[in-house]
Structures are given as structure tokens and as C-alpha cells.
Amino acid sequence: MRKLIVIVSFLLMPLAPSVALAHAFLDHATPLVGSTVPAAPHEVALTFTQNLEPAFSSVEVMDGSGARVDQGKAAISGNTMHIGLKAIGPGTYRVRWHALSVDTHTTEGSFTFHVGGQ
Ligand SMILES: [Cu+2]
């Protein structure tokens, strides 16, 4: 009987850590998620809940037609990503991010912000 309990607990063990909140999720962003800003920002900054692996994390910013308006490669350090923007006008922009956290879990998501003026 004791041997059976040991086997069962061994089988259940891999399930237990999966509930831990250990992935890199977006904590906050500038411009704020879903916000309207009066003037076009020069960059988008994202802060995550965990440190990132720079080589396997990325972010891109698209305008309403899906065209990239970022300046390419993001600067990733610790738990933050910064990406420069081209000169953009009023409109709605989507930020799409992919993150590989230092615990090797991947996460991804997207959000929009609006530049006012129209
Ligand atoms: Cu994780």
C-alpha cells in the first residue's frame, strides 16, 4: 500500500507546479493598454511580471492596416521591452508581443492604444 501511495504522488507531482504564476505576463505598458494619448509616442515600453530571454522575446507595433510602425528590433533588458516608433499620426495601433521568460515558458498577447487628434 505504501508503494502505491508513493507511485501516485510521483505521478501527480508534475501537475502541482503548473498552477504557479511563474510566466512572464504583461504587467503594464506605456502608452497604457487601451488608452488614448493626445500626442504620438516615440516608443512603446512594456514591463513584464518576470525577466525575459532577450533572444527569444519580441514586440511589434502595427497601424490600422497592419503595417509595421515600429523601428525594428526591440531593446530588451530584465523584465522590460522598449521599441521605437516611426512618426505616426492619429489612429489606433496594435502592440503584439511574444515573451520567453527566464523559466522557459512562452507567453504572447496584444493590446491597442489610440493616438488622438481626430
Ligand atoms: Cu512560467
Summary keywords:
118 residues, single chain, 4-stranded antiparallel beta sheet, binds copper (II) ion, mainly beta, 4-stranded mixed beta sheet, 8 strands, 1 helix, 9% helix
Textual characterization of the structure:
The chain is mainly beta and 118 residues long. The protein has one helix at residues 2-12, and strands at residues 26-30, 36-37, 43-48, 58-62, 75-77, 80-84, 91-100, 106-115. The strands form two sheets. A four-stranded antiparallel beta sheet has the order 1-3-6-5, with no helix packed on it. A four-stranded mixed beta sheet has the order 2-8-7-4, with no helix packed on it. Strand 5 (75-77) and strand 6 form a beta hairpin. It is elongated and about 70 Å long. The protein starts with a helix and ends with a strand. The model is unreliable at 15-19 (pLDDT under 50). It binds copper (II) ion. Residues 22-23, 101, 103, 105 line the site of copper (II) ion (CU).
- Oligomer description: single chain
Helical proportion?
A: under 10%
Q: What is the SS-derived class?
A: mainly beta
| Number of β-strand runs | 8
Please state how the strands of the largest beta sheet are arranged side by side: 1-3-6-5
Helical stretch tally = 1
Strand fraction: 35-45%
In short:
This protein has one helix spanning 2-12, and strands at residues 26-30, 36-37, 43-48, 58-62, 75-77, 80-84, 91-100, 106-115.
